[in-house]
Amino acid sequence: MRITQAILLVASLIAILLIVVVASADSPAEPLFSKQSVYLTAVNAQAAWNIEQGSPDIVVAVVDTGVDIRHPDLRANIWTNPAEIPNNGIDDDGNGCVDDVNGCSFVSDSSPGCDNVTNGFVNDDIGHGTFVSGVIAAAANGTGMVGVARNVRIMPIKVLDCYGSGDSIATARGILYAVHNGARVINLSLGGLRDAQEVRDAVSEATRSGVIVVAAAGNAGTSGVAFPARISEVLAVGAASQNAPDKRSAFSSYGPEVDVVAVGEDVVGTLPASRCFVLLPCLPGGPYAVGSGTSFSTPQVSGLAALMLSLKPDLSPQQITDIIKGTATPVPAGSTPGWAGAGRINMLEALKAVQNGGAAGEACTVETVVDGESFTCVGGRHIRMLQMHAPGIGQCGGDWAKSALQYIFLTPGRQVFLQFDATRVDASGRTLAAPIWRGDDGADYNLSIVMVYVGLARAADVGAGNGLFHDWALASEHWASTAQWNMWALGKAFRGGC
Ligand SMILES: [Ca+2]
Ligand SMILES: [Ca+2]
Ligand SMILES: [Ca+2]
């Protein structure tokens, strides 16, 4: 069954001249960096590069139209399969793909006018996969552009033909090839409307195998996230505007499945020199182009995942997702609430979260509770809660939910004491001042403690209706099991508001 998977790109025929922002952090000497710096600044990339620029051990599979593996900004960073002998017509390593020295193609049911291209022929007919690859891993070599994760490896996997169309079988096979041949990140800048079980199965296998799948939300500009981005295990990426990175790009599809966004307008990428003007016009002086679409915000997130794995290779897909979402910069809802998911990625904060404790979002189970106000924590390294401003009397709702996420880092067994300033109480007995978490490092953490306090309050107090926020329904499910309390889930639960 043929299911068209359109590439998610918005042709941008007019290059916008950008005002160069001189970054104080890492600024590569690439001629095109001035075009890149605006959207990369919006995701804090340059500062992140002071922490990590990518490891050659981390492989990102670009499941797309193929890749120009000889591109001057990519050739040093193309994955190679050492167990395969090139051009002998034999599948030397027995992985199901003949002569796959630099990736594999699965295009066996192409559109009329396109060639079927299978096995080790990963040539890019139109340039889309090459563009995406440059966003991820173009080299810092003094020419052209630089990728988000300049030192990681790209595994070219061709599933889309010369019109950028493909089918779900090829897509699923491409995903599985990536999983079985060492990729840690899979970039899917493609999608369609229809669901496909074989793709769902392949994504599940990827996730089970520790491979994170990142996909474009779609360019319909309407409610309804594309498939496979809308699969729950997939990190779905929308697009923010270049000139106003707090706003949705008009083309960016939205819906509850969107996890995060990056700027998706006028992104710089690599093109095969022989394919200038097929999909996008090349920039003067080289095989590069400027393009827009969730196709091009997505590889920035894949690159971030690759940087995180370079820093800490044992991160799981769930941990990567939690950190990327947990450190994202919230953006205004505008007229399409939820369009950006957790917000716009913040590469620096994500890498710092990896450095500071690794497994963000890992559940921390409360082991013992002492008089309802302190506990020890086992099984996780830190707790994610919402950082909120102290609310005013009667204030509840929007401002709270929009506040930034904050991580509290714990070591197993470490005690955190809850302190509570009960001086401000509203008419119904609610204490409104922001209480304090005092860690055993002596630091005070100002947190919205409403949820925590409810959870750690003795059930009898809460049930007795003594004013301890017992009408906050989101917390109620946790009351009965204080001693086995998943704090991380609690933090998430509260995100919805009061
Ligand atoms: Ca092979
Ligand atoms: Ca061979
Ligand atoms: Ca370069």
CATH superfamily of the largest domain: Peptidase S8/S53 domain
Supply the CATH architecture of the largest domain: 3-Layer(aba) Sandwich
Poorly predicted runs of 5 or more residues: 11-24, 358-498
Number of domains: 2
Attached small molecules:
calcium ion
Q: What is the class of the largest domain in the CATH system?
A: Alpha Beta
SSE-based structural type? alpha/beta
Rounded to the nearest angstrom, the distance between the terminal CA atoms is 47 Å
Compute the CA-based radius of gyration: 24 Å
Shape: globular
CATH topology of the largest domain: the name is Rossmann fold
Query: What order do the strands of the largest sheet run in, or round the barrel if closed?
Result: 4-3-5-2-6-8-9-10
> What do the pLDDT scores average to?
75
Largest sheet: 8 strands, mixed
Residue share in helix: 10-25%
How would you describe this structure to a colleague?
The chain has 13 helices and 19 strands. It is an alpha/beta fold and 498 residues long. The chain has 2 domains: 6-356, Peptidase S8/S53 domain (Rossmann fold); 361-494, no CATH class. The chain has an 8-stranded mixed beta sheet, sandwiched between helices. A hairpin with a 4-residue loop joins strand 18 and strand 19 (444-446). Helix 6 runs parallel beside helix 8. The longest helix is centred in the middle third of the chain and has 18 residues, at 294-311. It is globular. Mean pLDDT is 75; it is low at 11-24 and 358-498. The structure holds calcium ion (3 copies).
